[in-house]
């Protein structure tokens, strides 16, 4: 079962709000028995230009873009998308680069979710479990929206610290050998989410922190 578990949302020290070294991220992901991890730094793909590899772990490319109206992840892309474009323009660029647009933490205003803008998006994958969201309510609302509209789903830790890597994840029905496999399974709704949230105490602290 562990074979198909991926943390599809995480940050490295190439994100300005994160100090995690790529080697430590990889080590922790292996220790957490993940089969793979997507590094989705804020507005940069520098991590993916360093060619970090480990044969025990599949590292997927991606970036978390700060659009004019909140965060959108481009899973599978190797180049960053310009900041502060509209959500629609950002999604178009991600698709042009053969990536998968994901709305991370859509209803979490503490993490710059796109909020109500998601209601007008038809081709969007919804992150229904964000391990760093301070309140369950945000994830529950995302899950409800995805279920009601039969949208593809992902889960990820959104880890900005090593110890949070793998705390929330995506479970794939079939083996994932590369990024195209991963995107195809997500699109075909062959994914579910699993894992956990932060502890109550941590949530309380995080609720008053600002996410850049
Ligand atoms: Zn975010
Ligand atoms: Zn993030």
Describe the structure.
The protein is of the alpha/beta class. It has a single domain (2-207), classed as TIM Barrel. Helices cover 25% and strands 21% of the residues. The chain is built from 6 helices and 10 strands, in the order βαβαβββαββαββαβα. The chain has helices at 22-31, 46-49, 87-96, 136-148, 179-187, 200-207; strands at 5-7, 36-38, 58-60, 62-67, 70-75, 100-103, 125-130, 153-156, 168-172, 191-195. The strands form 2 sheets. The protein has a 5-stranded mixed sheet with strand order 3-2-1-9-10, sandwiched between helices. The termini are far apart. The relative contact order is 0.18. The model has no long low-confidence stretch (mean pLDDT 94). One zinc ion binds next to loops.
Topology:
Elements: E1 5-7, H1 22-31, E2 36-38, H2 46-49, E3 58-60, E4 62-67, E5 70-75, H3 87-96, E6 100-103, E7 125-130, H4 136-148, E8 153-156, E9 168-172, H5 179-187, E10 191-195, H6 200-207
Parallel strand pairs: 1-2, 2-3, 6-7, 7-8
Antiparallel strand pairs: 1-9, 4-5, 5-6, 9-10
The chain binds zinc ion (2 copies).
The site of one zinc ion (ZN) has 5 residues, from loops.
